[in-house]
Design a protein that fits this description.
Elements: E1 2-10, H1 20-34, E2 37-43, E3 54-56, H2 68-88, E4 93-100, H3 103-115, E5 120-124, H4 130-134, H5 143-158, E6 161-164, H6 167-176, E7 182-184, E8 208-212, H7 221-234, E9 239-243, H8 248-251, E10 258-261, H9 266-274, E11 278-282, H10 295-302, E12 307-310, H11 314-321, E13 325-327, H12 333-344, H13 347-360, H14 366-375
Helix pairs in contact: 1-14, 2-3, 3-5, 7-12
Length: 381
């Protein structure tokens, strides 16, 4: 163990929460520990009690279901709590790794790291404040918009390095901030959980389309409901399974072809996914989503699932490139419903797509990606 060389990893979520932030940093922590760094995760009170390497805030993970003003307050409280913990440990910390979103939480933590004279890596999974502009919460040209862009600029330029998850985000940040060291560190599936044995799991008797994760502001739940309703009218043998932290509109939508399950451990989730036939990920048609590649898609790949994705953007292009599914350029519920039925009735096409998923899945292991990244940043560490 390298004494007095503490590395802090700041994340709003950690194990056992099966969410994007947690899934991203878990293998990072594992690699840091392999390098013999004393590693502590600063996270929310939502994390399990028995996680020995986690120091928990007094405040929970900000809720995606909360109204935006409430969500802002939640982020600020969590950010200042975790930021003060960074400040109090300043004489022991070698490096701080901060993943965002939540943007306000992460930015506050970056401010405290700079105030404490601590080097930090700032990890960007969604580009704020541009996402807020896409959601029409604010205009970038407004006074508040300019302030938040200034915060973003300050955070990036104060970082030893900025990491991000997709090629689109990497190119955006690199073009706008040429003086910043930007690295592309993709997400992936957890090889320890999504193992090769899953690929031989027996499929459900009924053709099953699965969605998992949070159905937040980047997704239009009405699209999913329309697709489920249309498919039910055209082919009653097809089933939909939705797993995760879902809005009330989904939870209260009682249809015989829809099963809803709560968020579960990644281990249990991997088994559920592997028993399905097709993964689905339909994003809202927003500029920010053009460079999105949701973590759930990697889980589908890990489970050996072909998938139906859209609209046009980096996600759809990536899936099309490796032949791992069907990409819909424009979100059209009628077309999506017909596509699902066609795939169910064409098992040879579906099998060919699955073969491509299995052929390419070796390139998407999250721990392999993390290992490659941390081996490349010895100068920072």
């Amino acid at each position: 163990m390298r004494l007095n060389e503490l590395v802090l990893v700041v994340s709003s979520e950690y194990s056992p929460i099966p969410a994007a932030a947690a899934s991203r940093v878990i293998p990072w922590v594992a690699e840091l520990m392999k390098l013999s760094f004393k590693t502590v995760v600063l996270s929310s009170s939502s994390v399990a009690e028995n996680e020995k390497l986690v120091e928990k805030s007094f405040f929970p993970t900000p809720s995606n279901k909360a109204a935006l003003p409430i969500r802002l307050i939640q982020e600020l409280l969590l950010g200042f709590d975790l930021g003060l913990r960074i400040f109090l440990k300043k004489n022991k910390i070698r490096l701080c790794i901060i993943t965002s979103p939540p943007f306000f939480m992460a930015s506050i933590c970056a401010f405290f790291a700079r105030l404490s004279g601590i080097a930090y890596i700032f990890d960007v999974r969604d580009r704020y404040p541009r996402v807020l502009a896409d959601l029409e919460v604010l205009k970038l040209s407004s006074f508040l918009g300019r302030i938040l862009q200034g915060v973003e600029t300050s955070v990036y330029r104060g970082a030893k390095q900025v990491t991000t998850v997709t090629l689109g985000l990497f190119e955006e940040i690199k073009d706008e901030f040429p003086d910043v060291d930007v690295r592309l560190v993709r997400n992936g599936f957890d090889e320890n959980i999504f193992n090769k044995e899953l690929l031989g799991k027996r499929k459900n008797t009924s053709f099953t389309v699965v969605y998992h994760g949070r159905l937040g502001r980047f997704y239009d739940h009405e699209t999913y409901l329309k697709v489920i309703d249309l498919v039910g009218k055209l082919d009653s043998e097809i089933r939909f399974l939705m797993i995760g932290d879902l809005p009330v509109e989904i939870l209260s939508y009682h249809k015989p072809n829809l099963q809803v399950m709560p968020m579960m451990s990644l281990k249990d989730l991997s088994v559920k996914l592997a028993s399905c036939h097709l993964g689905i990920c339909l994003l809202r048609d927003l500029p920010a989503m053009k460079s999105a590649f949701p973590a759930k898609v990697y889980d589908y790949i890990g489970a050996g699932l072909p998938q139906l994705v859209g609209p046009e953007g980096e996600l759809s292009m990536s899936i099309s490139k490796i032949g791992a599914g069907v990409s819909i350029k424009k979100i059209n519920p009628e077309k999506i419903a017909r596509t699902i039925i066609d795939l169910k009735n064409n098992p040879d096409q579906l099998s060919a797509m699955r073969d491509q998923v299995i052929l390419n899945r070796k390139n998407y292991g999250r721990r392999k990606i993390a290992q490659s990244y941390f081996q490349s940043i010895h100068k920072i560490l």
